[in-house]
From TrEMBL, chain A:
InterPro entries: RNase_H2_suC (IPR013924). It comes from Arabis nemorensis. One of its GO terms (cellular component) is ribonuclease H2 complex. Pfam families: RNase_H2_suC (PF08615). It comes from the Eukaryota. One of its GO terms (biological process) is RNA catabolic process. This is Uncharacterized protein. Coiled coil: none annotated.
TrEMBL record, chain B:
CDD domains: RNase_H2-B (cd09270). The keyword DNA damage does not apply. Non catalytic subunit of RNase H2, an endonuclease that specifically degrades the RNA of RNA:DNA hybrids. Participates in DNA replication, possibly by mediating the removal of lagging-strand Okazaki fragment RNA primers during DNA replication. Mediates the excision of single ribonucleotides from DNA:RNA duplexes. InterPro entries: RNase_H2_suB, RNase_H2_suB_wHTH, Rnh202_N. Keywords: Nucleus. The lineage of its organism: Eukaryota, Viridiplantae, Streptophyta, Embryophyta, Tracheophyta. Residues 224-243 have a biased composition (Polar residues). This is Ribonuclease H2 subunit B. One of its GO terms (biological process) is RNA catabolic process. It comes from the Eukaryota. One of its GO terms (cellular component) is ribonuclease H2 complex.
Length: 159, 280
C-alpha cells in the first residue's frame, strides 16, 4: 500500500543536510514550496536558560518568537520525505505514484535537530512539542524484545 | 548538495523522525496495513530493513515547517519507532489456536497462522514471527516443521516484563513522573501496555496477576473513539486531539502525564495514504 524509500539517506553526499534549518513555527502558513526563509528568518541564541532549556529568539512578520532547539534521540534521524510528482519530465505519469492508494515517499533531506517556536510563552519542559519526544523513551521500554531469560527472571522474582 | 534543490520534483512533503538503521536496507520500506492489536482496525505500519515500526502523528493546532528555504504548510511531525512484533501478532496467534474453554487449542505452522484474510501484509512478517513468537508460544518440532501454540501463562509473563520495563523508564522522563508514587507508576505502565492488548483476556489477566483492581476501561475507550477514524478528514480531528491535550495540561500532574501519553502513543491509521488523498 505504499513505500518510504530511505536509501538515499545512507549516503551522506547524496542528500541535503538541513540540520539547524528545520523550524516548527507557531502559525499556519498557507503555502507549500520554495521561499527565501534564510534571508528573512534569522534566529539568534540568547543567554536565557530556563529549566535546562536554552531560549532562542527570532522574528516573523514583526512578531517575536521564542524557541528552543531539540536534538533528536540517539539512533534516530529526521527525514524530509517528498512524494514524487505524478508527472515526469516528459509529462507522462510515473507508474509508481499513479495510484493514490500506493504513495511512494522518498527521503529528500536529513537533519539531526529541530527548533520549535512559541509565540506567547517561553519555551519550557512542559511544552507539548518537547513532551511528545517522551514517546521515544516509552517506545524503547515498551517495544524492546523480551528474551526468554527475562521472562524467567520476572516470573521468579514475583513469586 | 545545496539545501535549496532537495525539494525539486516533490509535490508534497512530510517530516518524519525514524531510526537511522532504516537507511541501510536494499529496498524501500513498505507501508503495511495490519490489524491494530487492540482495536482490530486496519492500521498503517512501516516494515523497513527487517524491522517493524509503528507510526505516530503529532500535530499542534497551528503550525507549519520551515525546511531550509522551503515552507511546508502542514506542521505535522511523524515518528516511526520499532514495535515489538509480538504485540502485533498476539491476536493472530490467539485466533489461530482455536482455543475453546479449557482446551488449550491447536498447534499450527507459522505460514498458516499468518494467512489473514484481507491482510496480505502479515505474510511479509514470516521470518520475524519465527524469530520472536517462541517467547509466548509452546512449540513442537516434527522433522523440519515447527508448530506453534500461544500459551497464556507465557503471554502473562511477557506482559509482566513489559510493565516492569516501563515502570523503570517512566520516572526518568521528567520530574512530574519522578514525583508520583510507585503504585501510580505501575498503573500508568499497565495502562500504556493496555493500549496494545485486548482488555479481554489479556488486560484483565494482567491486572489480576499484579494484584491491581480492574478499572473499567470504557473511560479510556471513549477517548479512543474521539480520535481520528480512518474515514474522517485529517485536519479536523487533529485539532480536537490537541485541544483535549491542552485542557488536560492545565490540571494536575497526573493528567498532564496522561495527556502526554495520548499525544505520544496513538496510532495513526493509514496516515500517509489518507493525508495524501485529502490534498489531491
Amino acid at each position: 500500500m505504499g513505500t518510504i524509500d530511505f536509501r538515499a539517506a545512507s549516503d551522506e553526499n547524496s542528500i541535503a543536510d538541513l540540520s539547524g534549518q528545520v523550524h516548527q513555527v507557531p502559525c499556519c502558513i498557507r503555502f507549500d514550496g520554495s521561499a527565501e526563509v534564510s534571508h528573512y528568518f534569522k534566529p539568534k541564541s540568547t543567554e536565557v536558560e530556563i529549566d535546562g532549556v536554552r531560549m532562542e529568539e527570532a522574528h516573523f512578520r514583526g512578531r517575536r518568537l521564542q524557541g528552543a532547539t531539540i536534538s533528536l534521540p540517539s539512533g534516530y534521524s529526521g527525514f524530509v520525505l517528498g512524494q514524487a510528482s505524478n508527472q515526469n519530465a516528459n509529462g507522462k505519469r510515473k507508474a509508481c505514484s499513479s495510484t493514490e492508494e500506493n504513495p511512494c515517499w522518498e527521503a529528500k533531506a536529513k537533519f539531526d535537530k529541530m527548533t520549535y517556536w512559541n509565540h506567547d510563552n517561553l519555551p519550557s519542559k512542559d511544552d507539548t512539542f518537547l513532551r511528545s519526544f517522551h514517546w521515544f523513551s516509552i517506545a524503547e521500554a515498551l517495544h524492546k524484545p523480551v528474551k526468554v531469560e527475562d521472562l524467567v527472571a520476572v516470573s521468579h522474582g514475583e513469586k | 548538495m545545496s539545501s535549496t534543490v532537495w525539494c525539486e520534483g516533490a509535490e508534497k512533503t512530510r517530516v518524519l523522525i525514524a531510526p537511522d538503521s532504516g537507511c541501510g536496507g536494499n529496498k524501500p520500506g513498505e507501508l503495511l496495513t495490519l490489524r491494530h492489536p487492540k482495536s482490530e482496525n486496519g492500521t498503517c505500519y512501516l516494515f523497513n530493513n527487517g524491522m517493524l515500526q509503528e507510526l505516530q502523528w503529532f500535530k499542534q493546532s497551528y503550525g507549519s515547517w520551515f525546511l531550509g528555504d522551503y515552507i511546508s504548510q502542514d506542521g505535522s511531525l511523524y515518528m516511526a519507532t520499532p514495535v515489538d512484533p509480538v504485540f502485533i501478532l498476539l491476536p493472530i496467534f490467539d485466533e489461530a489456536r482455536m482455543k475453546k474453554g479449557e482446551d488449550p487449542g491447536k498447534f499450527r505452522q507459522v505460514d498458516e497462522i499468518l494467512f489473514v484474510e484481507g491482510y496480505p501484509g502479515y505474510q511479509l512478517l514470516l521470518s520475524l514471527a519465527e524469530k520472536c513468537m517462541d517467547v509466548v508460544c509452546q512449540t513442537q518440532e516434527v522433522g523440519s516443521m515447527k508448530f506453534y501454540r500461544l500459551d497464556n501463562s507465557k503471554v502473562l509473563a511477557w506482559l509482566s516484563c513489559k510493565v516492569c520495563c516501563l515502570k523503570k523508564t517512566l520516572p526518568e522522563l521528567d520530574k512530574n513522573y519522578a514525583a508520583q508514587d510507585e503504585k501510580q507508576t505501575l498503573v500508568d505502565a499497565v495502562s500504556i501496555v493496555g493500549e496494545y492488548v485486548k482488555t479481554d483476556p489479556w488486560l484483565k489477566l494482567l491486572y489480576d496477576h499484579l494484584g491491581l483492581e480492574f478499572v473499567d476501561p470504557t473511560t479510556k475507550e471513549t477517548n479512543m473513539e474521539n480520535l481520528p477514524s480512518p474515514n474522517e478528514n485529517y485536519m479536523e480531528p487533529s485539532n480536537s486531539l490537541q485541544e483535549k491535550t491542552n485542557k488536560k495540561q492545565g490540571k494536575s500532574g497526573k493528567q498532564t502525564k496522561q495527556a502526554k501519553i495520548e499525544t505520544g502513543s496513538k496510532n495513526i491509521r493509514d496516515m500517509f495514504s489518507r493525508a495524501c488523498k485529502k490534498k489531491c
